[in-house]
Amino acid sequence: MTIQELRVGNFIDKGIISGIGYIEGKPGCNVLKNKFSSISQSYFIEDIKPLELTEEWLLKLGFVLIERKGRYGNIYAKSINDYDYCIERDFNKDTSYFVGIENTDSNDDRDTDFTHNFSYDLRYVHQLQNLFFDLVHYELNA
């Protein structure tokens, strides 16, 4: 993990990132223990670890189980602005996920029941948070 792939609000092993910058000339970040903390702790980038993306984290981030044993495993979805963003295990990797857009309910008939899958090597919680922020400007919070 590098400092460039982190954003304020990302979940990591030490808590929630509240600031990113340099500590004594080395990349680092400030981390809140949880969302109720008001005091942060500073860590060098090599002292923090990403959180593995698991079913537990998907549920914490607001995804719901919509289908057991989908094409490659359980399918989870989160509805945002008339789109269901679905996520499931990647077919060729046991440790990553891919995301798709399914079951739309749009006012534009050309967009109704539209399905689009795209593969993205998602292994960690912060990667999923960043992807959703980049795609739909939506913060995934627990």
Write a structural description.
There is one protein chain. The protein has 142 residues and is mainly beta. The protein has helices spanning 55-60, 125-136, and strands at 11-12, 15-23, 26-32, 40-44, 64-67, 75-80, 83-89, 97-102, 116-122. The strands form two sheets. A five-stranded antiparallel β-sheet has the order 5-6-7-8-9, covered by helices on one side. Strands 1-2-3-4 form a four-stranded antiparallel β-sheet, with no helix packed on it. The longest helix is centred in the C-terminal third of the chain and has 12 residues, at 125-136. The relative contact order is 0.18. The model has no long low-confidence stretch (mean pLDDT 83).
Structural class: mainly beta
Low-confidence runs (pLDDT<50, min 5 residues)?
none
Give the strand line-up of the largest sheet: 5-6-7-8-9
Total of domains: 2
Count of individual beta strands: 9
Proportion of residues in β-strands: 35-45%
Q: Tell me the series of helices and strands, N- to C-terminal.
A: EEEEHEEEEEH
Rg result:
17 Å
Q: Count of helical segments?
A: 2
Q: What about the largest sheet?
A: 5 strands, antiparallel
Task: Calculate the mean pLDDT score and round it.
Answer: 83
Helix content: 10-25%
Termini separation (Å)?
A: 21 Å
The dominant shape is: elongated
The gist of it:
The protein is mainly beta and 142 residues long. The protein is 13% helix and 37% strand. The protein folds into 2 domains: 3-47, no CATH class; 55-136, no CATH class.
